[in-house]
Amino acid sequence: MEEFASFHGVPAGLSRRSDARRNSERITAVALEVLARDPRASMEQVAAAAGVSRVTLYSHVGSRAELLKRALADHVELALAELRTCSLDSDARTVMADLTRCSWESVGSLEALRTEVLAEVGESAVAHAHEQVVKHIAAIIAAGQAAGSLTTAAEPGWLARCYFALV
């Protein structure tokens, strides 16, 4: 938060005004929704949906690329929250099948946004944003390998990246 605060002109260690915090939270909440519907939505459209001026939007998010990064981060947080609800009590094959079913719905609904984010911020930023998701999947694979229900022919991190690329 300090990094964010100092980036937006508030010295590190000082808190932002409550209205500024509310605006930032509203922008973040609305951005993913708007961009999921229309990945080419303008900053003006996002500002209007968030109920803030374009100037206010730009004071919180310096560029469209930054807004797309925020939307991506929000999507990843939602995906992680969903992943954390999956029970690991079943065998790894069942867990992976459930993950694939759940993931497909989430990823499929945001394919156009993913394409826009890749074009605007690049593949390395997208890969970095999804690192926690890949780690979670790798942990599931490692547990399945330890239990003997998944192959041990490859390292869990590599298998997780393959799974993630396919989904």
Mean pLDDT: 78
Number of helices: 10
Structural class: mainly alpha
How far from one another are the termini? 32 Å
Q: Main beta sheet, described?
A: none
| Percentage of residues in helical conformation | over 70%
Shape call: elongated
Tell me the number of strands. Answer: 0
Q: Radius of gyration, rounded?
A: 19 Å
Quaternary class: single chain
Unreliable stretches covering 5 or more consecutive residues = 1-10
SSE order, as H and E? HHHHHHHHHH
The fraction of residues in strands falls at: under 5%
Describe the structure.
With about 170 residues, the protein is mostly helical. The chain is built from 10 helices and no strands. It has helices at about 1-5, 20-35, 45-50, 55-60, 65-85, 90-110, 110-120, 125-130, 130-145, 155-165. Helix 3 crosses helix 4, helix 6 runs antiparallel to helix 9 and helix 9 packs across helix 10 (about 155-165). The longest helix is centred in the middle third of the chain and has 22 residues, at about 65-85. It is elongated, with a radius of gyration of 19 Å. Residues about 1-10 have low confidence and may be disordered.
List descriptors.
167 residues; disordered N terminus; 10 helices; elongated; mainly alpha
In short:
This protein is mostly helical and about 170 residues long. Helix content is about 75%, strand content about 0%.
